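G.,

No rush on this.
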Amino acid sequence: MRICGAKGVPSLKRLRKKQAELTRQMGLKPKEHLSALGHSYHMNHAADLLALDFANPMVRPHLNLYPVETKVVSETFQADKWLKEVDGDALTPMWADWEEAPYRHFYVNELALRRDGTFVIPLRWLVVENVVHAECYPVVEDREAHIFHVQTGTKPKIPAKELQYNLVDIKNVQGPPRFTECMPNPIRKIANGKPAFSIRIMPWADDVSGNRSKQYNAHTNIYLANLSIPHAKLAQEYFIRFCSTSPDTCALEQFEGMMEDFNGRWHPAFDCQLGQDIIFSVHPHLFPADNPQAQELCSHAGDNHGCRRDLMGGTIEEKETDEGYHAHFSPGVPRSQTDTVAIIHQQFAAAALGVAAAVERIQTDTGIKDRVAQIWIKQMLEKSSAMFKDLTAQDSPNRHPDLRGNKLKGEARKAFKQKIKEDIQEQVLKWVVTQPPERYAALPENSPLRESLRPGDHYNCLMNCQGADPHPDTPLEILHSKLLGDDKYAWFKLTDPWDKKKDEIFATRLQSSNVDGLTIPALRARYILRYKNSLIGKHFKSLQQLAAFHFHEDLCDSKGFDLWKATAELGALLWYPEIDDIDQYLDDLQVLVDNALDIWSMIDPTKILTKVKLHQFTHLKDDIKRFGPAVIFSTEVFECWNAIFRMCSILSNHNSPSRDIAVKTADMERVKHQLSGGWWKNNAGTYVQCGHAIRNFMNTERSLQRRIGWASPAKFGPGSVKLLSKKARRPVDWKEGMGRLWSEDLHPVASEAEAQRKWDHCKFVVAQSGDPCFTQSWIFFKDNATSEVLAGRIFNILQLKGSTTVRIIVEGFNVSGINDPRMNMPVLSPSNRTHIITAQAILFKYNAQHDCKTCKCTVTQGSAL
């Protein structure tokens, strides 16, 4: 910068000093933790990271702090778990009318007076038709007895603005009603006049390599996303928060550190929208993960009962019975935290007896194997066996006196040894309860935890997580279970028998696909076929949309085609970002899941038994009903963030990677927050933000936005066009622009004089959906004359030279009322009509493929793989 002539350039030392000062002011300091297993790691705590969302003017307007009741489901806060299952204590407890003074705070479970003079007790707050409502109990006042009768039979929803006075006001005017001993809400005292909100999050954990090379450098990472933010934002790397990493510490140990922020704890923040301090609580909502990681979070290992969600399964013989096989096609008896903890206790009891086979039998029969518990179980087995050997071995100096000589024989001797085992069991169980010693010593003397096994210390801490049960709350993840599961199995089944000639035929057909209208990367068909057994998610995302058009009889039989079609139809339904009618959608989803499982049972029945991912599709209907569209809990955006982690790992000091990477990512959060205009408290205790020049630079400089993971709004809005470059632009008259579609009856403008002027070709036009539509793009549009929605293909996009007038020339097509019997898709046929429409008439574009099979298209050109 100095060489370029910039003025006031600080030295590198001063720059680092200022950066350190800003980081201290922000309060983003990784906290060191020591797990129960003795592993040290550093964590950027969820509460510290989420507090930034309230203080960031680019994020705060997008926070949805109340569940939303709506017919169209596109977000987690609109789905059943948030809307119907979550306990009221885990939702935002208060509401205030921030548009009208005096901004009274109304809390749930407190008496409130409506403007019409009636009383209610709000139970929870929710948004209905963009208006905050209170779901409440009506309360009838007996003025003579000064008694209130709560009518618990109904829970009407009333607009929150109908509330006039809160409990504090009522007490000041009338005195406390008789039943308000349980009021006010205890959070009111904790808040001490500050607003109180609740945030629900989606933590993600996985094992990730810290290297960019193929040499694996194992780390276990935890990231999180704020589910109060719409999915359109969460799909951006800007909104993914790094919490912790460690090459030694497993995810369950790190989750124990994160849980310090959960379970009813309240944290301070500055709300830039309200301009005041607030408090907020953090609650886990679901745990997206690939299948091995999800099993770890559920303390599940598979074995005879291979599903982490239910008890489906049994021995091989039991699974192969009609009843056992049929059980794979529907959800079984659900697992729960309580049952899993009970099974873990059984394993501890068996381990204390020193019998490894008994522990393994419980794990095999139940499928439960806890990673943290396994460390203690191994020590208990060794300790119990050593103690038993010490008391019973003939050469042991500590052999029990009653076992010396022939005092006890036969059954009496066996019974005595069993009694020794039981005594040892009691001692070993007492010993393990006191482990780890430093944590046991920190417990209060009268704590009941001193007498029992403790979550986090002895087994999975998530088994004590309030409001989130890992068994139902680790939903099926479509990247690993659909693309790298069902699609991968079907792809291998169909393509494994192919020789090089068939590979070449399919590659040529696939490469000729029309990809306009599909949001997929460029097709590399020959690469896909060359490495057909080593494909990744992006390849299967392309194949599930296109391959069905190219599986002709020369490549697969009818059953193979039906298998691929069933998997592709299911995939098409899963990538819905917005569900208009959830009930109809779930019914359709159930049919497609059943179709996929049925065709697998016809082609390869053993797949149903050996691939648990296929059974897990039976839980998908419940997952989407509870959490919203499946794309919300897809882990792709977390996987993308791994690239940032790897660079931090490569550039770390490699001596303390957990701390060094946590510090680096905290600095990244600080820079991102300050560039975004976020507020923070300076050394004087005043909230400040960066200057307007920096904020404007962030808002206008797309390269900076891209570097911090923020996707800026589209440069071209609906109805706008982009002209060809001046070099490629060649003005034409109207007749030339119409080309082969020219007709005397088609006039673009009212004035004949304008019809004689020149027109410029455009590169694309933006549909109402935001899709850029090019020449030859397939679109649905609204006819200017009749307002009828029609299908067509863009022939040309023209803009009147020197004017903003745009005309789109569209070839009309008819959509058949009957689907194609083989593809089960609508068929397009030319209508022999030409339409001249405005740019605003285009609704959206879609993808259409040529029917090569019916037209008997042949491969006329190709090259060897």
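When you get to it, here's the other one too:
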Amino acid sequence: MTDAQHRPDMLEKISRYATFYWPTLIVSIAVFVAVYIFDSQAEKSHIEDRRVAVADKLGPIRAQLEGNIKSDIKLLQGLAAVMETEPNINQTRFAEIGRRLFSRPMRLTDISIVDSTTTTFIYPYLPNQPLVGDVFSSDPEDIKAASSAEKNNTFVVARPHISSLNKRSMKIFYPFNYGEGLAGVDNKLPAAANIRRLLVGTIEVDRLFRESGLTDPSLDLNIALYDNIDRKGAPIFDNGPLTQAALLTVTVNIGAQSWVLAASPKNVSNAAAKDASTRRLLMFCLAFMILGPILWVAKLLEERQTNIAELNEQKRELRSVSQRLQLALDASQIGVWELDIASGRLHWDARMRQLYAMNPDISETDIEVWRDRIHPEDREATSKRFDNAIRTNSDYSTQFRIITDTGEVRHLRAFGAVYRDAHFRKKIVGVNWSITADVKMQEDLQKAKTALELQNHALEDARRAMEYSSLHDPLTGLANRRYLDKHLAKIQPAHASDGMAAVLHIDLDRFKDINDTLGHAAGDTMLRHVANQINALTNEDDFAARIGGDEFVVVCQSPTGMAEEQAKAMGEALITAINQPIPWEGQECRVGASVGIALIPPSLDSMELALINADIALYEAKRRGKNRLEFFSDTLKEATFATKRTADAILRSLENDEFIPYFQPQFDAHSLKIIGVEALARWQHPEHGLLSPASFLTVAESLNVVAEIDKAILKQTLKAAKRWEENHLDTLHVSVNISAQRLFDDGLMERLASIPLPAGGLSFELLESIAFDDKDAAASTAIDQIKALGIEIEIDDFGTGYSSILSLLKLSPRRLKIDRQLTLPILESKPQRRLIGSIVDIGKSLGIDIIAEGVETMQHAEILRDLGCHILQGYALAKPMSEDDLFALMTQTHASRKISATG
């Protein structure tokens, strides 16, 4: 609705309200004007009363103040008269006059005579002696007052100030004439006569104000004293803020000077406010008593007019509603009935007679006629509901069937409510409408629903079967990986307390052997056997699944909070049960089980991590010998991740040729001349720098890339040897370590046959830690083939591994290297020396040269040489070095030899 449409409505409301309330408004204005005038007059009268009270109290104070100051001035006038009669006065005489003057109580604290601006005499003398002969005052107000007194030849009272004794004081300057001049302190007379001088008296201000009544504690006035008629500047006395409403000022006359004494009552605002509040409350009550009845009458007139308007509007709305109701009843085919309960007469409209197939000319009938029309099966229940509604005065609502004269069955819906008419007769009125079509439709829908439910049951059975198949392993009947993921998703780690759940990851040992040797049928039998054992050892709170070929997972939940103990017991029981043999086609089949266990802590981010943790623990169980269980820990996780990072870095470094040889020279035991080098594998790590085999060999073995590392070291070593030859350096014998993986590589011989051997010869060092005795035939064959290619064999780390003396006869190595663990103690241990001597003797008897490593000092070198070792290797002689460093060393040695030969 726009503003233009709102405006007439607003004007109409204003006009209607004005009709009833304008007399009230006029009376209200008159009452409030009268109240305001009365309040203003009362306020003025109150203030005037307070001013009169202030004047009564302020008059005596002014008189007392004038009297006190004038008495002090009179005292100074008398003293001046004495001074004029004693022209030869000196300090002694002045002090005597002062003592007489001060022999009685007074407000003066000291008196002095000022010549020009200098103090000539003063009393009391002793405390004020420094002032004699000095300027009488440095205060501008004192100087101004003294000048005014001399100029006008009258006394002047200066403005109070803080004295040298830290007290408030004010000075009175009184001019007078010397007769013949005054004698000074030295009793000498001034040269001039009739000289005008000033008699100065100092008044104690606080005492003056106290004796004048200004500080009287019983005085309920705030007072301010000004030393000028205009009240400019700060007052020389005040005891509180002044209230302008009741302010009164009086003039204090001090000769030619005029002071102003201003005063106002204390707490005048609070008292005035309290009086005004009481007065205004009474006036408000009076105004309310006048305006209340007037407003009440106006309100009654307005309500009467409003009620008349509403009644007219209701009549119009009632006619409109009646018309709409009749149209709605006709359109909806609803029949209306009314029953007079006392007489039993029932009134039906035309639609009701149509519903019951009654004579359209009969508008009234008996209640029993209605009962007879009801279907016999519904009659009793419908009648009871109807009678109960009448008895309890409650609403009546029901559904029933009727039978017409033609035998047609109709379904009706009825609703009624009990009420009393204008004559207080109890009646019930209601409506009926036919729901025959609705009932028929509901019956058809029910039949369709029944058929649909049967179809849905069949579909649900099929869905359950499909869902079961999608969530379970068809071979074992256990849950599959998908079902496991759904189950883990229901477990919230943050809601699980410590020790409430654990994951067991089970992997079968030797299962592949059974599959490969006995076939998949045997393997399937073993898997079902394992599933049966798992089902037997788990309870209803646990969850078991097969997630791969021979991998199973059990989620162990412990309501008692003992998941770790329960998981450990279950893991041990599973290992024992799975290890039990089962018959297969006349023979026993056995598999083992490795179990990794991970507890589920509340801090776990996702359940997927629990599976990963269990897998890490399973890997550790496999690594430590299989057929056992291991628990996951943060240390194990960190070690696994570190191994993973190392493994990834090893694979990258193999691609980037970051495994390089470092060469440690080998020396002739007698001449200490370099006769060979051992190529040692080093890892040029891109982040951690140069690393020894101890940092990567174990991981490399697990990756089966040790042979690749050996291959890379051999390739670079041969390249370095070729560089020596091309630069005409000494031909050195080269030793390269070879691993078991490399030794038993089927393609090794073919690759070795295609490479050129260095001029100084090539040896493969076999680690004695390799158990050659277990692979006697294969090792002998491989070593014979290597020897046939012109490559010599050395046994490394002799004395610390598996090889027996018999293996030396079978392998026939060219050299054997005594491990540094045997050579280091020979400086102090004679048994150790004898042991090395025995090894040397064995080597000599078999034609094997002896290399001693771990030569840490030259003393080691001498002892090992004396024991018969042929070749020495160790830090005392040379450390492992890069190819370039070795090349520089060989170049330097070669140059030194040439210089020695020509010299």
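The radius of gyration is 65 Å. DSSP finds 25 helices and 32 strands in the chain.

Enjoy the weekend,
O.
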